[in-house]
Structures
1.
Amino acid sequence: MATNVQYVTLGIDKETFAVPVVRVQEILELTPVARLPHAPPYLLGMIDVRSQGVPVIDLRAKLGLGAIEDTLDTRIIVLTAEIGGKDMVLGLKADRVFEVTGLDDDKLEPPPEIGVRWHSDTIEGVGRRSGKFVTVLDLTGMFAVGDLSADLVPVDSLA
């Protein structure tokens, strides 16, 4: 029997990405971000979520895509990601959020092997929705231990 995994689908540029809905806590309209000095380019800063500081990652920058101006559709997806063996809370800034949905087939195709070195550690797999490709992000691979600070907000502190 199919497991019917649900995903939150989001748009970056003309592409559709997805994260497992079980990881998503909330989706926020764009809010002011407190900048952090000497942060890497993809770490925009911090926002307040229920009186807790949550780091915000610019998904465009993290995926190596060029910057654009924010729009009325820009959203911050607050979710948990396993970083260094612990679930941490962070926000992902995306151009837009589409829907919560399943994919056409529960099986994901692995990231393509094309014989050159590239950052496939950010991709869990590729699925399809209504005949179009959807790239499912690997949150654990995207935020490896050395990549983000070890002092991000643990999930249990946002109770």
2.
Amino acid sequence: MPELTIESARGAVSIAAELVAQIVAEEAARCYGVVSLAPRSRVGRLLRRGGVLVGGDVEGLRLELHVVVEYGLNLAEVAATVRSRIAYEVERVTGLPVASVEVVVEDVRVTV
């Protein structure tokens, strides 16, 4: 995965995109209504952050995460909460601006 760089007058800091994906995955797991991430590939099923894609340009990070939501909850509200919380936490921890967070609800599941 590529590195993301923050430049200032004193130098530059590079952050691995994989680290950003890990932050997104851990924060998504803490969001109310999110049962799990939904990995897009067989390898992704082995990795905890398999349902997270990280990209970006000069405007900021572009994050996409695929989630499984608890059955019976309002999907739009859960997705809005996830978007807000992920954007805030990634900006707080990394110092990188977040241009967009796309939440794709892949499935709903009844938790027991």
3.
Amino acid sequence: MANPSLSDSSLRYLDAVANNPDPVVTTTEIAEKLEVTQQAVYNSFKELEQKGMLRSKKVGARSKVWWLSIQGRQALADD
């Protein structure tokens, strides 16, 4: 059963992360892939992180990488 707290848009972002060839992604990569703004991706990723679907790590002064959490993988599997 799909997670009722996730919108179609959120599932689209999770799917983009899951189908990326690298284990981590940046907002720039996903923005280019989905043809949306980096700010839209960042805002969605922050929301998904608060829901436990994504994890992140700062890797530089202004850089952050994101990856699916176990809960995020489960949400995609349930969808």
4.
Amino acid sequence: MKAFTHDHGHFTSTDRNILSWLCLAAFLAVLTLSSCKRPKEIPGLPVTKDVYYTCTMHSQVHEPRPGTCPICGMKLIAVPKTRLDSTMQIHLTGEQVVLGNVKVQTVGTGLIGDSQLFPGTLNFNENNLSTVSARIEGRIEKLYVKDIGAYIQKGDRLFDLYSETLNNAKQEYVNILQQQKSMGNSNINYETLVESAKNKLLLWGMNAQQINELESTGKFSTLTSFYSSQKGNVTALAVSEGEYVTEGGTIMQLANLSTLWAEAQVYTTQMTAIKKNEIASVLVPDLDNEMIAGFIDFVNPEINPGNRINLIRITIQNNKNQLHPGMPVYILVGDKKRHSLTVPANSVLTDSKGTTVWLQKGKGVYEIRMVTTGIEENDEVEILSGLQEGDVIVTNGAYLLNSEYIFEHGTDPMAGMKM
């Protein structure tokens, strides 16, 4: 083929062909670049601004397009973007709901009683505790009670004491009596002296019978016996035979078990139905669930700020002497029933900041809500405020939602709530 020359400014046919191919290539390149800027179409799922991509295991991952999880490498799934109405809400995918076994229930009213059962323990009635102490210094020559828990009757012999001071006082009393007899009528007022010496012996722990014997015989032993002025069980022994004691020193401690204290620790949320002087019953499992009537005679006015626990106490009679300190008991308070808004106990989360539940606000959308609770009975909790009938609450998986909230918002859900 004869080619055109470049004379007179004309192109050859070859030059024109090359130029045509270059133009076509440039057009295809522009078309290709233009098509690369368009969103990639996913079969069955149109790309839209209302969808984001996340990982079923790491919900904090939010990507604008398909791919794999940068944490675990799993394939991301498409999730509709749900507008959250407040910072108290979170969103879960369908897979997360299934994996977390999240279950919900509609809030309704139920019959709940004011009766509450609290685990407790029997303790000593501290009003009936007493201490046997030495009235005068000396040495314990003989102990007649050596066992903790031993029962002491009023008048039982407890110990023998050797005391130089007490022996001198005995001798003084005997001498004054002898002088009174031998002197007969005298200007000395022996009656006053005798009475003073006798009172000294009584003050130092001798009883009237011992003093009368001393008066009638004029003789005395160097050991002085001391007797119990009250009854009770020995709760502590502070001395042993041969030990010296000082005036006022503790010999032993006694507890009268005719009455006992049944004590229980109660959360502040349970205190609404408990009042001082209210009739209550004590259930004793160790005595075939025997019920003993009593009344609440003490409610601790101080609340432990760490665990929000209070103390209640009931005084009960121990008529058969079958009750012992340390026995486990249950305290039953109240017996009224009323209709009230109730939720399952496992749906309520309580910590030092307050009490909350999780509500389902829509498909996959959950909101934390602070509530005020009343009494609890048979795994049901009374709701005094924060919910209304018809609300849908989470009954299983609430702790999972707390963790998810921290993932999505980066903070504890209770941090921004008002008490």
